[in-house]
Amino acid sequence: QVQLVESGGGLVQPGGSLRLACAASGSIFRLVVMGWYRQAPGKQRELVATSYDGGSTNYAGSVKGRFIISRDNAKNMVYLQMNSLKPEDTAVYYCYAFKGGTFWGQGTQVTVSS
């Protein structure tokens, strides 16, 4: 089992920045894939960014160039730096990890509003 706990959400004005963090614990050896999804009210969960153990990353087109995913394997952490935030980025952001199955955090709310 893998436990994931997110932090760093909140309210930010359009154009602002936030940094989300996700701490992994439990059976965390060789977490090959870690990343972030988000879900806005009334919408399906959307893949935002993925970080692979070898160092490669993937981003949704809607966040490419604005968001940066990074991970610190020594600390069992994955981060999402979100810049130039837009109201349409408002959602609950979920950390996920894949190791034989998919594990999820509880989610953290990000609200972009003036």
Structure description:
The model has no long low-confidence stretch (mean pLDDT 93). With 114 residues, the chain is mostly beta strands. The strands form two sheets. Strands 2, 4, 5, 6, 9, 10 and 11 form a seven-stranded mixed beta sheet that branches. It is globular. The chain starts with a strand and ends with a strand. It has strands spanning 2-7, 10-12, 18-26, 33-39, 46-52, 57-59, 67-72, 77-82, 91-98, 102-104, 108-112.
Topology:
Layout: E1 2-7, E2 10-12, E3 18-26, E4 33-39, E5 46-52, E6 57-59, E7 67-72, E8 77-82, E9 91-98, E10 102-104, E11 108-112
Parallel strand pairs: 2-11
Antiparallel strand pairs: 1-3, 3-8, 4-5, 4-9, 5-6, 7-8, 9-10, 9-11
Strand residue percentage: over 45%
Class based on secondary structure composition and strand pairing = mainly beta
Give the uncertain stretches in residue-range form.
none
What share of residues is helical? under 10%
DSSP strand count: 11
Q: Please provide the ordered H/E string of secondary-structure elements.
A: EEEEEEEEEEE
Total number of helical segments? 0
Q: What is the general shape? A: globular
Query: Quick check: average pLDDT?
Result: 93
Distance between the termini: 40 Å
Largest sheet: 7 strands, mixed
C-alpha Rg (nearest Å): 13 Å
Short description:
The chain has no helices and eleven strands. The protein is mainly beta.
Keywords:
seven-stranded mixed beta sheet, single chain, mainly beta, four-stranded antiparallel beta sheet, 0% helix, 114 residues
